[in-house]
Here is the input.
Amino acid sequence: KVAVANVLDIFATIDPSKIITKIKYHLLVHIEEDAVEIGPLIGAMTEIFECFNAIFRFCSILSNHLAPSRDIAIQPGDQEGLKHRLTGGWWQNNVGGWQRAGPGVRHFMVKHPLLQKLLGWTHSLPSKGEIKMLPLSRGQKERASFKLRATNASLAVNFGLHSPDSRWIKCRRVISESLDECFIGSWVFAVSPTDPNSTIVGRISDILLGTIDSVVLVVLEVFQILSVRDDRMGMPVLVRRDSETIFSILPAKNIQFNINVQHDCYSAKCEATGIRLQMQERGESDQIENYIVHNPLERYFINSHAFHNAHLLRATLPRDLIAPIPLFQDRQQTHFDLAITLRATLETRR
Here is the structure.
């Protein structure tokens, strides 16, 4: 309710007339009842459905335009029915029995990988803890291995639990429990290696594969979440514990999910002082662009507005760090003031 109220108040502050002329703003008021009836709205009320406008137009090409809405509704329905039959779905026949397409139709999809990709049909999903190694350089025949003492793992607080002379291969990414691809530099939540009932957050520094036992370890640069959110952004804040760089070694299976984290450029006074050549088709062009150079202030925001893994983030963080804060303390008085402004504007237009 607070989040919806904030959205409406922001639009009303920008242009009060939109509140009484746009029906979609009125629909926001009923979000609570809609969520109870049809479930979470994160996938039902986002702008991804704008892409269907072109599909609807294509579906009306063969229409006689006497009843275009009916023709447009029938065409996607026929497409979904075809997809159901091609993928081995069952349907009820005229006598009440269940049947499906023959093997020739069902095997048609198996022989056409392109159609499988278009329909989102994948044969296998990545598994938790699965890794992908760094690609070999040109002319390199064998992967380089490093002693554990030569990696960032040597800086970890639990480095003594592992053999310093064991050899490891550096990897490119690892699959988290939520099946996210987590790369070096990704921000993640993970199960603490010392306490399975607690969660830590940090930035991946290294992903290592053992050369002997194929054990996968992740070196995590651990950060701390402050107990209060940022006054300006209203988001949870990540800082180093006691301003010290702390690393921790944990099994790859402990990685839970990744999150979106942004640097606090406002406090660090970061500016677009960097200059570099623009990349075009993996090559440097002759065009120059500026980029933000981050000053050395280790203070970051957890982007609590991001859609990705929003449910996991809300289940992990304390409620007081992510609960919406009312934009105006006295909403009714604010609405009265905006109504006065709107009435004056409408009188002027007359």
Summary: DSSP finds twelve helices and 16 strands in the chain. The mean pLDDT is 87. Residues 84 and 237 are 47 Å apart (CA to CA). The chain has two domains: 2-91+99-118, 131-317.
